[in-house]
Amino acid sequence: MRYPLFRLLVFVVIAAVPMYWLYEAWTFALGPDPGKTLVDRLGLGTLILLFITLAMTPLQKLTGWSGWVITRRQLGLWSFAFVVLHLSAYCVFVLGLDWAQLGVELRKRPYIIVGALGFLGLLALAVTSNRYSQRRLGRRWKKLHRAVYGILALGLLHMLWIVRADLKEWSLYALIGAALMLLRVPAVAKLLPRIRTKTANPVINPQ
Ligand code: HEM
Q1: Distance between CA atoms of 84 and 141, rounded to whole angstroms?
Q2: Which of 35, 119, 142, 169 has its CA 20 to 30 A from that of 45?
Q3: Are the C-beta atoms of residues 96 and 35 closer than 8 Å to each other?
Q4: CB of 153 shorter than 6 A to ligand 1
């Protein structure tokens, strides 16, 4: 296994985040509506982890260090773990496990349908993230995993629907998402290794 310490560091740092939130909940430090705070934080955590996952390939191209891509799978799975917790927190704290309420909720908060589509997308990517699926699906695996950009768009739409009145924060997230999508465009992606060689060999490649 390559870069075991870096992988472990990523694991410990990310795992510490929900642990700390749990500690805050335990010490009544999550404000007047701790359940809702947890739902929001976990939703935002899912989105941020998706961003970090998608930043790994451009970072590798830019720096030439393969450790970035090696943690990509772990980061994607963390994003899925956060969305599972987000959905579970919603079911417990917002829905109160009252399934009869679900119909009313869907009419009151249609953005949940968009979130649910994102959840199903992340579920499909998580269950096929192993080597066996990679081998079985062959070329289709890459196509399937490109759906992560659609999931990102669904996550942003879901958030936009929620924060309609306050677009400032959302715009920042949308900008990051758009930049990550732009870095996927082959013409742009090709520039990244060139930037690396230019900065590494400024004499050979002046300008
Ligand atoms: C079945 C799946 C999902 C359900 C039921 C769900 C439900 C919710 C609910 C109830 C909220 C809080 C709304 C409010 O503040 O009034 C929320 C917020 C949020 N969710 Fe989800 N969600 C789901 C999936 C997702 C997915 C897949 C993502 C990201 C890819 C996501 C990202 C977010 C974000 C960013 C917020 C806003 C947090 C904030 O305002 O700080 N959610 N979601």
Answers
A1: 23
A2: 142
A3: no
A4: no
CA pair distance 188, 203, nearest whole angstrom? 24
**Does ligand 1 have an atom closer than 6 angstroms to the CB of 46?**
yes
Tens-digit pLDDT profile for residues 161-191: 999 888 999 999 999 999 999 999 999 999 9
Q: Whose structure tokens read 């590494």? A: 200
Mutate which of 159, 169, 170 for ligand 1 pocket (most atoms within 8 A of beta carbon): 159
Rounded mean pLDDT of the chain?
94
Q: Is 112 in the pocket of ligand 1 (CB under 6 A)?
A: yes
CA–chain centroid gap for 29, Å, is: 26
Q: Report the nearest-CA residue for atom 2 of ligand 1.
A: 116
The ranges of the chain with pLDDT < 70 are: 203-207
Judge whether 52 and 75 are in contact, CB under 8 Å: yes
**Nearest alpha carbon to residue 161 among 119, 102, 96, 113:** 113
The candidate with the shortest Cα–Cα distance to 125, out of 139, 156, 146, is 146
Ligand 1 touching residue 84 (CB < 6 A) = no
